[in-house]
Amino acid sequence: MSHPSSEAAEPRPRRSRHKRALPYGIAGAVVLATAGLSINAMAASHEALIAEVYGGGGNSGATYTNDFVELANAGSGSVDLSGYSVQYLPGAPTASSKWQSTPLTGSLAGGGRYLVQEAAGTGGTKALPTPDATGSINMSGTNGTIALVTGSDPLTCLTAADCQADSRVKDLVGFGTAVVHEGNGAAAGAGNTASVARAATLADTDDNAADFTAGDPSPENSGGGGTTPTDPASTPPATTPPATPAKIHDIQGDARISPLNGKTVSGVTGIVTGVRSYGSSQGYWVQDPNPDADPRTSEGIFVFTGSTTPTVKVGDSVSLDATVQEYYPGGQDTGIQSVTELTKATVNVVSSGNAVPAPVVLDEHSVPEQFAPQAGGASIENLPLRPDEYALDTYESLEGMNVRIGSSRVVGATDPYSEMWVTVQPDQDPTKRGGTLYTGYDEPNSGRLMVQSLIPTAQQAFPVANVGDTLAGSTEGPLDYNQFAGTYAVEARTIGTVHSGGIKPEVTAKQSSSQVSVATYNVENLAPGNAQSKFDALAKGLVTNLRSPDIVALEEIQDNSGATDDGTVAADKTLGKLVDAIVAAGGPRYEWRQIDPVNDKDGGQPGGNIRQVFLFNPDRVQFNDRPGGDSTTAVGVTGTGADTHLTASPGRIAPTDSAWTDSRKPLAGEFTFRGKTLFVIANHFNSKGGDQALDSRFQPPVRSSEAQRNRQALVEREFVESLEKANPKADLVVLGDLNDYQFSPAATSLTANGEILTDLVNTLPVRERYSYVYEGNSQVLDHILVSPGLKHGADYDVVHINSEFADQTSDHDPQIVRVKP
User: Would you tell me how many other CB atoms lie within 10 Å of the CB of residue 266?
Assistant: First the structure.
């Protein structure tokens, strides 16, 4: 997860550098709107219309450098556009998709045109005519939607029907395979070299496929400027503007976006401080040893060479002619910050063997406690930096510069990508075992930094560290904005050594004979094809560390073919292999209950069909099987008082409700322990994928995935309330991976702020409230909630065996509660 958890057990995607991309690989949509008109009222409009849409600007083969939307006025009177905006939505929207907005100003004359310029790509040779409005929306070249809406508030509709019902929408155009479109189909033929446009008559029949055709982009502004691109063979050679002589601090400027972005610069001088010579994002860092007097302007910069291995080495004094670029890792739509860098560089090595500029020391004295400036959800990238007030501004003001950290506490264990996380704020929210506790949305822990190494592994292996260890000595190198994690990282030219903090995997207390133990464990995409060592390690955790719980709710059990998307949904081979491993580890032969999902409908790793499963020890508890539960039938509650039961056991809660679209459906089961009924609901709410990162350029960042979890919490709460209404004394355990924090709206909604369920993590000492470590933040994603009758005397434990360790069986720690029904 760039923000806490993409699918918690799914591997983090590696993005390709300098490839123009949109989140989820989906296309975009642009919308304009005005009050009082629905899409159904758009026929034969005689005022402002969308006339042309082009999303291929700056893409491969494009002529124009920018995307654009062109409006036209089919009437004779002028239209005031000051109350309008242009907005953008993915063409195949998911529940987490959001509209983006570009406000408009001025007016659109009768019979006139109005040009809205959007984001630029890295290609193209021709600038648009002077735009009438400018935005930064990165449109898709092949698929999307377009409209006409009052104000700049983003639309919320994600389907054609919902957009038709929104009275703000005046005109809408879908192109490619866009889900949201007018009429029988979207306009066809858009691409990197083709726009979609209305005919000169501006006919509007409310059928995008009929009204729009593809052709050469022909942008026109309100002044009539703009022509259709001519045949390249007859176009005179473009005049190359002269290069701008510049120092690195001139390029970096006093904000996040370079004042020279897109320009060619010459005579850029400095000392090479680090070289990355692997992969497709190779390059080197250069720093000017003669800084200016402005603490906001960085003296370092990255020179991107792509797949070409740099020819320079550390200590070379160089002079560069290059192009300035703001690179958005993963695409501008992700909300990630940009990296100011030089590309297409010609390098002249002036001398070698020079000392690198002295490092800036990062510690509690130089890094502020406050994390980021706030902008009401808007972008902070054009705000002047305030490095004395905000940590993100401090790091940005040092982007590309040589920095040093001293002995630092490790707060995120070494991962498979040879990364670890440390804190340069030693006293900032420490956990009991040495991590850094995430305590709230407004406290993201400013001292966290990623550490990577520029040292070839043949010379020095990357150190293996657990949370609570110390990266001792000095770690020094350029400060980068990491392209994959979307966060600041020390690219270590020299790296310290690890001193152990001594943490060990925990073992929970043994239950008494009168207690029933219930556990939850996200086993991270477990499939039969996994190595036997993973099954053995999971079995050891369950038998030794959790002491063989009576009931276990497992999350992320994959089907028998794992990630192969072949239609398989059964998971008996996966579960049989796990149970055999548990027996071999000295545990009981568990039985299991589960429901196979509909193929490819529950999200997670494509083809894996992950689901929740109950394991139970038949020597200790009885599972009350009740027929009727399947993938699409909703479980209900029948009876009252002590005779309250589930209509199906196991059963799924409201599986056809839209809350569970592309997400796991809760699994409810009815058990008997020592003659008493115990209801258990196993959960795996939708992931945080699509949320903007903590260090997003939008502050505060948007938690777009939260809306679906909030809906899921309300649907499940309604079921819990029906159960507790039927039997106010019902014993109920709700548990699993909720993919959200104990203070989140989803968690507090599900518990009704503690009125119907108690979130047991809140009963722990504050420093022990975590089950997952992400980017150096120890946080809660997994929960055990209990009904009022069970909270008193509940013996609850988060058993730390994974999240703090470099050697992990899963990225989640299991939890257990021992209760007396």
Answer: 14
